[in-house]
Automatic annotation (TrEMBL):
Keywords: Iron, Metal-binding. Residues 193-293 form the Pirin C-terminal domain. Belongs to the pirin family. Binds 1 Fe cation per subunit. Its cofactor is Fe cation. GO terms for molecular function: metal ion binding. This is Pirin. Fe cation binds at residues 78, 80, 122, 124.
């Protein structure tokens, strides 16, 4: 998934200085962002108040959108560096193409995981014949320094492990939850899980006290640690929790995101994650020059040009403003 802002702000993130070591209940409101011609998303990370949760550095929630008579998602070829993209759907389909030659339709509750490493490009689009509704989330995971220059790759995992309790089915997207481990490749201690709650569910989900966590509300009416969380919003929970109370007033869908606080300080600009301004400048120049990121074949349209870099220097700082 691309950040299609034509004047993207540089985001400095990472570092442990602003990690909340104790449990908190910090509600993050989304920012509305236009994605392509017909899709509007709610951006939860980076947020004015918080930029990362563990290694999770970017979260967009979109839909449910009625695209029966629309083209749906249409994101032209664009580059990524220094991160992984996670595609997650509740409704609809997304066709993924990349510069490695991957061609894969991703459907609800299937993991599409792309590791950009040193450089990759891809496109995302709704197939011409598609379901009426499109609803999902697109997320980025920052790669640690030891793996940020790794070879790019794409994984598709249609079958994922689950954790169950009365009224709860948790699908493990990335990392591990309560002993169930996702087949997706992870480079930091992390967890991503889709939580399906039935009406009246009142459960406690086991957590790792050393992780920091956030919960994205996808649908329905639910309370997370006693806080009502509306669809399209996210509750940041801090660290120091061994369990998380969840209660559903209706059938509800949530996403649990967590991991060890990301120690390194990063610069995130447009679709690149780096450590220095030179990293970002070189990536932009390589993309515009047709170097390093490869070519996405089969997409009916031109690749996205990179926006102009800001005139102010890009410097990595802390996790929050």
């Amino acid at each position: 998934m691309s950040n299609l802002d034509r004047a993207p702000e540089p985001n400095v993130c990472g570092g442990r200085g602003f990690v909340v070591a104790e449990p908190v209940r910090e509600l993050l409101s989304p920012r509305q962002v236009r994605l392509g011609e017909s899709t509007e998303v709610r951006r939860l990370l980076p947020n004015l108040g918080r930029r990362m949760i563990g290694a999770w550095a970017f979260v967009d929630h979109y839909g449910p959108d009625d695209i029966a008579d629309e083209p749906g998602m249409q994101v032209p070829p664009h580059p990524h560096m220094g991160l992984q993209t996670v595609s997650w759907l509740h409704e609809g389909e997304v066709l993924h193409r990349d510069s490695l030659g991957s061609l894969q339709t991703i459907r609800p509750k299937e993991l599409g995981l792309m590791t950009s490493g040193r450089a990759i490009s891809h496109s995302e689009e709704s197939p011409r014949s598609h379901a009426r509704f499109l609803h999902g989330a697109q997320l980025w995971v920052a790669l640690p320094d030891t793996h940020r220059h790794t070879e790019p790759g794409f994984e598709h995992h249609p079958d994922l492990p689950t954790v169950t309790a009365p009224g709860l089915t948790a699908t493990v997207i990335l990392g591990d939850l309560d002993g169930s481990v996702s087949p997706g490749t992870a480079y930091t201690p992390i967890v991503g899980a889709d939580l399906a709650l039935t009406r009246g569910a009142d459960v406690r989900l086991p957590l790792e006290p050393d992780f920091e966590y956030g919960v994205l509300a996808m649908s329905g009416e639910s309370h997370v640690d006693g806080v009502p969380v509306l669809p399209g919003s996210m509750l940041y929970l801090g660290c120091g929790r061994s369990e998380l109370p969840l209660r559903a007033e209706s059938d509800a869908g949530l996403m649990l995101l967590g991991g060890e606080p990301f120690e390194e300080e990063l610069i995130m600009w447009w679709n690149f994650v780096g450590r220095t301004q030179d990293d970002i400048e070189r990536a932009r120049q390589d993309w515009m020059s047709g170097l390093r990121f490869g070519v996405v074949k089969g997409y009916d349209g031109d690749p996205l040009p990179a926006p102009e870099l800001p005139v102010v220097p890009l410097k990595p700082r802390a996790r929050v403003r």
